[in-house]
Write a structure and sequence with these properties.
The complex is a heterodimer of chains A (472) and B (475). Chain A is mostly beta strands and 472 residues long. In chain A, 4% of the residues lie in helices and 63% in strands. Chain B is built from 25 helices and no strands. Chain B has 4 domains: 152 residues, no CATH class; 56 residues, no CATH class; 39 residues, no CATH class; 117 residues, no CATH class. At the A-B interface, strand 1, strand 2, strand 3, strand 5 and strand 6 of A face helix 15, helix 17, helix 19, helix 20 and helix 21 of B.
Chain lengths: 472, 475
């Protein structure tokens, strides 16, 4: 990491060097988010001496609950934006994250990664082109890919942009290189090599409601001995008249010569108060060639969904949706696998009502089919005077039945939220929930008799620091 | 009390005695409120100067009669006694000079008593002493310069002094100033052309303009106005709303406004601060016209707040289905959003809002069914596995299949489920775990390749194949 930062700093200095002329009107803005969480958890552990009974079967060895453990992860995000560096359109941007575990019994995921640079780049933007050098993340139809390198974008027309990007690849959504020790400790078969990420995309927006993006991306091992992935994505949206929006997207695993995820949908805006949407989709994960997971030949599933949003008035709205997923029958079927269906049905209902400064939200979610069943409801009420503090209470109840594990139960939760500005540049928010877990079976699972608390400070300082609203 | 009684008596008398003609005229040009029943005294006085001697001479001490002069009749013997004393002179910003007007009327041959009627009666044809306070509509008959009514005039200075020169006026009086008909709903957008003379200063002070104009410091017409504490007190209670100009109503405006802004932001700066634009253009240095706008000043005009505005392609399902728009990378999202905005969900310090409440407890089913693609954001080996290990759910030494205790024959049937949700397997199991069986050289030789497996993929990354097959990869 230190080496990476040194490299980035050197690159930044080289890029800024030619611009080190009239440094006038420099501005720096800092935005910080400090988050502390308190989480109670009760892990499980396999005990080979315990006699376990499942139905009529008596077996030796079972999972047992460990004592309640506590975790208090602390996260500090710092966003730095600096401009006025002597060249029009040049700025430096960084989003840094610090982590720590405050007296935790448990090692919260990634809390031992004490420093992380999510973004750290120099950017030069002109009306016709953009250059970005440093650590960055590429968001596209393929997902998020981080890399240390260069992005170059050319915009010959206002509605047309052609981009190319490349550099040292980082593990997805983790600002670690492929061969970092953090990842190797969790998966020793990961290649002991870094990766090189290369990609290009074309974006066009022929009308305000129509956009098309085509992306091609190639990720290869740093010694060029093999591919990690070779992917392409197409995303498009077309506005037909003022009421109909047609959308489609597709991913292709070019290396395996097969389609990945794909969807096509139509949204009809019946009126400003009513919109309905139907969608048909297919899902097949696109997995790296550097792991064995892809050779298990993941099967695709397909489905469709329909949803509607009804806004009765500015203060009352409803939404609902239904999704159906269907898998092909198990290709490696086995009489030993019980009651695994080939479908899943999902129903969601929600509503929001507002009366003055009071808001009432309610939602219900029912899921039946592959993976397990769930019935869950949430209800919250909040009081939020305009432009001021807010406070609310939240209740939840959900019942789960797991298809592959005897860990079914019902959880009830009650808690509250609070938010208040402390001046124009500082805001405090907090969220507290207490859960009660009633297990239906006798088997042991992770316990949800627990308390969860998070406290967040959000602050801004520097140039245009009064633009706090834009950060929220 | 006496004044109220007199008023009531006058009102009753007027109601009983008023002729139809007089009533009709009053309806057209009502006399201003006057507590004194002039008409009832018409037979006692032949001239106005009998009571208002100072009017003609400019002697303000004798504009009104003294209590003694009233008591000469209202002494309780001849007529009932009254207790009247002249009140303080009404504070006004009218620059009316009685002596000047009387002299003018005299030059025109108007008799002195008729001269008073000219302004103080609702019409010239009314009876002597059917008068009251002068009505501004009568002033307009001479001073209107073509304007049909008092408030329709475009210039106020001949009769009224600027607000700054009327220190006696209180906040309530200024607040109650009538709004001219020109100040209709369209006035806000067009008043700039009229705001060039001193007319505005009759009713307005600088603070009134600065409550809306974010560029007040650079507008000459605003700078020429005096500052006034009374107006400052009034505007503090006002809620500023900015109307949308016709050009802004077009659906194409969000795309086209850049061209207008690049041509010059002088007009934009009337309503828009730099912060207005930064609701969308989050990074000001990218857009030169934004830097030319004034910053929002503490205590100054708020400027148009566009922070919640959404472009046309942000449909109602934007939060869950923004992939298609976001696919444009720097071409789309980064125009308005900072990277930190995306990170607030996609790499948040705590669970992002789109996951819904209690997601950690409820995500297993969603993961199995791939309702959302976990790997789009999460490095499953790191993110999922580290947490599952911490909780003891991941493969941590228990016999194979023991965790999946609702499926007693799990070991023999897991293949089909694995093909449906292989990412879920990887969230707990390392590759080495699967290779215990699914390895040609180091395991049990159980073939993991499902239907449709394309062996040509071996050429893409032979190292992966060698994990199972060793040095010799079958073709």
């Amino acid at each position: 990491m230190a080496r990476t930062l040194r490299t980035l700093a050197a690159a930044a200095l080289c890029a800024a060097g030619p611009a080190a002329g009239p440094l006038a009107a420099q501005s720096v803005r800092l935005h910080g988010t400090t988050t502390t969480q308190y989480v109670q958890l009760r892990p499980i552990q396999y005990d080979p001496t315990v006699i376990d009974t499942i139905g009529t079967v008596v077996d030796t060895g079972a999972y047992v609950s460990l004592p309640v453990a506590e975790a208090a992860p602390f996260t500090q995000d710092l966003e730095v934006s600096a401009w006025g560096l002597g060249v029009s359109g040049l700025r430096a941007y960084a989003l840094l994250r610090g982590r720590a575990a405050l007296g935790s019994d448990l090692v919260w995921p990634e809390s031992d990664t004490h420093f992380e640079a999510l973004y750290a780049y120099l950017e030069l933007e002109r009306p016709r082109y953009l250059l970005r050098l440093g650590r960055q993340q590429r968001a596209s139809g393929l997902g998020f890919y981080g890399f240390d390198g260069l992005t170059a974008a050319w915009r010959p027309l206002a509605a047309l942009r052609i981009e190319g990007y490349g550099g040292r690849g980082l593990a997805r959504a983790s600002m670690e290189s492929f061969n970092s020790s953090a990842i190797a400790s969790l998966d020793p078969l990961r290649p002991d090599l870094g990766t090189i990420l290369l990609g290009a995309s074309v974006w066009a927006a022929p009308s305000p409601r129509s956009t098309f993006t085509a992306t091609y991306q190639r990720e290869l091992l740093s010694d060029r001995s093999g591919l990690v992935s070779e992917l392409a994505a197409f995303d498009g949206r077309v506005g037909v008249g003022s009421h109909l929006i047609l959308s489609g997207s597709a991913n292709a695993d070019v290396a395996r010569r097969q389609w990945g995820k794909a969807s096509i949908s139509a949204m009809y805006l019946v009126s400003p108060a009513l919109s309905v949407q139907v969608e048909a989709f297919q899902y097949r994960p696109t997995l790296d060639l550097s792991s064995i997971w892809g050779v298990f030949t993941p099967e695709a599933h397909a489905g469709y969904s329909a949803s509607a949003n009804v806004t009765v008035s500015r203060d009352l709205s409803f939404n609902g949706g239904f999704t159906y997923r269907h898998w092909q029958p198990l290709s490696s079927g086995s009489p030993f696998l019980a009651d695994v269906g080939n479908y899943q049905r999902e129903l969601t209902l929600g509503s929001r009502a507002r009366l003055g400064s009071y808001t009432l939200d309610g939602s219900y979610h029912l899921e039946i089919g592959f993976g397990g069943d769930e019935s869950a409801g949430d209800l919250s009420a909040a009081y939020a005077p305009a432009g001021s503090w807010s406070a609310g209470v939240r209740t939840t109840a959900f019942q789960q039945t797991d298809m592959f594990r005897v860990a079914s139960g019902t959880v009830y939760g009650l808690g509250g939220t609070f938010r208040t500005p402390l001046g124009r540049r500082l805001e405090l928010s907090a969220d507290l929930m207490r859960y009660l877990h009633r297990r239906l079976g006798t088997s042991t699972g992770v316990d949800w008799n627990q308390t969860r608390l998070s406290v967040t400070f959000d602050w801004t300082m520097g140039a245009d620091a009064d633009r706090v609203a834009a950060y929220q | 009390m006496t004044a109220r009684a007199l008023t009531a008596a006058f009102a009753l008398a007027a109601a009983l005695a008023g002729s139809a003609t007089a009533t009709a005229l009053r309806a057209q040009v009502p006399a201003a409120a006057d507590s004194f029943p002039h008409q009832r005294h018409a037979r006692l006085f032949t001239t106005c100067a009998a009571c208002h001697a100072g009017i003609a001479t400019g002697d303000s001490a004798h504009f009104l009669p003294t209590p003694e002069s009233c008591a000469s009749c209202h002494n309780g013997d001849l007529v009932r006694a009254v207790n009247w004393t002249p009140g303080p002179r009404r504070i006004t910003n009218v620059t009316m000079d009685h002596a000047q007007h009387l002299a003018l009327f005299a030059r025109q041959g108007v008799q002195p008593e008729a001269a008073c009627q000219k302004c103080h009666a609702a019409a010239d044809t009314l009876a002597f002493m059917d008068v009251g306070r002068a009505n501004p509509e009568r002033c307009v008959t001479c001073h209107g310069r073509g304007a049909p009514t008092h408030l329709a005039q475009r210039s106020c200075e001949p009769c009224h002094t600027p607000l700054a020169d009327s220190p006696g006026l209180d906040v309530a009086t200024i607040t109650a100033y009538p709004k001219p008909p020109s100040h209709d709903s369209a006035w806000t957008l067009s008043h700039g052309e009229a705001a060039s003379g001193s007319t505005c200063a009759v009713c307005h002070a600088q603070q009134f303009c600065t409550s809306c104009h974010v560029n007040a410091r650079s507008v000459g017409a605003i700078k020429s106005l005096a500052r006034d504490g009374r107006v400052a007190a009034i505007v503090r209670t006002l809620t500023v709303t900015y109307p949308r100009p016709p050009s802004h109503l077009s659906s194409a405006w969000p795309r086209e406004h850049g061209v207008v802004a690049r041509a010059g932001v002088a007009e934009c700066a009337n309503c828009h601060t730099r912060e207005s634009c930064l609701g969308c253009h989050r990074v000001e240095e990218r857009v030169a016209p934004v830097l030319e706008l004034p910053r929002r000043a503490s205590g100054g005009a708020p400027g148009v707040d566009l922070s919640g505005i959404k472009p046309a392609d942000h449909l109602p399902d934007q939060l869950l289905r923004h992939r298609i728009v976001a696919a444009g990378g720097t071409a789309s999202c980064n125009v308005c959003h900072r990277p930190a905005y995306c990170v607030s969900c996609h790499a948040a310090a705590k669970a992002p809002s789109f996951h819904g409440p209690d997601f950690v407890a409820r995500h297993a089913r969603q993961a199995y069914a791939a309702e959302a693609e976990c790997a789009a954001c999460h490095q499953t080996q790191v993110f999922c596995r580290s947490c599952h290990r911490m909780l003891g759910e991941a493969n941590t030494g228990a016999p194979v299949g023991k965790f999946h205790d609702k499926q007693p024959g799990w070991l023999f049937g897991h293949g089909g489920v694995a093909r449906r949700a292989i990412e879920t397997c990887a969230s707990c199991h390392e590759q080495t775990f699967c290779l215990k069986c699914h390895s040609a050289v180091g395991g049990q030789g159980v073939n993991p390749h499902g239907p449709g497996f394309d062996p040509r993929v071996a050429s893409k990354n032979p190292a992966t194949c060698r994990l199972c097959h060793g040095a010799v990869i079958p073709r």
